[in-house]
């Protein structure tokens, strides 16, 4: 039985940082194909493969999407923008081609399933991209205006934009470091959930978080304050509090 605790893959994962500035260097079709092929090898529930990704290179399209979701420079200036979609349209048409009508697409399980499949596949893709010397950033803001994104990408019913990803060659002048994470004791529970485990870990993390941002030239940052701003008010949702209506508009009734 192996007792190894390290590998090149783990080292790559531990070196992950979000990249928001890119050199003016294209992501080649060969690289993109390899990255998406790696995503396809990710686990998928019941082998439904309930996701699709749209690769966007066109500058005007990236600009329109950026404007729709809040004006983000990394959306406009990334060599390629990937929009990851929960996709049941393909499977629905497969069922219809066999003379039946899909009866479960409106159930919440499939909303969850599609989102989980996207998350697993997209993380595989980002790790693959980083292994090729590229960098990227997940863009949850793609859900700030799902209707605009769906219209821009001409999404049919039963397809929903879950997350975006900017990809390219990192600009070394950006200087972003490795943002600290919560200590292991706050996220790794043994045998059962410990509702008090977060307290000590969060106290230490608050200090690590403040020191990290101070090193980036930003003083007095607080993780607790950031969490409160994001989850403590409707305004922190940036329009995503209407997600149920957005999902239903694309056929995800989530009943």
TrEMBL record:
<keyword id="KW-0560">Oxidoreductase</keyword>
<comment type="similarity">
    <text>Belongs to the flavin oxidoreductase frp family.</text>
</comment>
<keyword id="KW-0285">Flavoprotein</keyword>
<dbReference type="Pfam" id="PF00881">
    <property type="entry name" value="Nitroreductase"/>
</dbReference>
<feature type="domain" description="Nitroreductase">
    <location>
        <begin position="16"/>
        <end position="168"/>
    </location>
</feature>
<keyword id="KW-0521">NADP</keyword>
<dbReference type="InterPro" id="IPR029479">
    <property type="entry name" value="Nitroreductase"/>
</dbReference>
<protein>
    <submittedName>
        <fullName>NADPH-flavin oxidoreductase</fullName>
        <ecNumber>1.5.1.38</ecNumber>
    </submittedName>
</protein>
<dbReference type="GO" id="GO:0052873">
    <property type="term" value="F:FMN reductase (NADPH) activity"/>
</dbReference>
<keyword id="KW-0288">FMN</keyword>
<dbReference type="InterPro" id="IPR016446">
    <property type="entry name" value="Flavin_OxRdtase_Frp"/>
</dbReference>
């Amino acid at each position: 039985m192996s007792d190894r605790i390290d590998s090149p893959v783990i080292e790559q994962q531990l070196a992950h940082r979000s990249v928001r500035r890119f050199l003016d260097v294209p992501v080649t079709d060969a690289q993109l194909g390899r990255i998406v092929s790696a995503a396809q090898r990710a686990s998928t529930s019941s082998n439904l493969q309930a996701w699709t990704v749209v690769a966007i290179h066109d500058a005007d399209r990236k600009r329109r999407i950026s404007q729709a979701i809040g004006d983000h420079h990394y959306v406009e200036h990334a060599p390629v923008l990937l929009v990851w979609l929960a996709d049941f349209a393909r499977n629905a048409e497969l069922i219809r081609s066999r003379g039946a009508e899909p009866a479960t697409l409106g159930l919440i399980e499939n909303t969850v399933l599609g989102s989980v499949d996207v998350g697993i596949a997209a993380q595989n893709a980002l790790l693959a991209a980083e292994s090729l010397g590229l960098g990227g950033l997940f863009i949850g803001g793609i859900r700030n205006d799902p209707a605009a994104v769906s219209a821009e990408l001409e999404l049919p019913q039963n397809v929903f934009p879950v997350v975006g990803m900017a990809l390219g060659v990192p600009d070394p002048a950006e200087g972003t470091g490795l943002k600290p994470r919560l200590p292991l004791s706050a996220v790794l529970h043994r045998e059962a959930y410990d509702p008090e485990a977060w307290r000590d870990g969060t106290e230490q993390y608050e200090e690590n978080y403040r020191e990290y941002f101070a090193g980036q030239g930003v003083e007095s940052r607080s993780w607790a304050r950031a969490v409160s701003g994001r989850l403590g008010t409707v305004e922190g949702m940036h329009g995503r509090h209407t997600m149920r209506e957005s999902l239903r508009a694309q056929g995800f009734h989530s009943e």
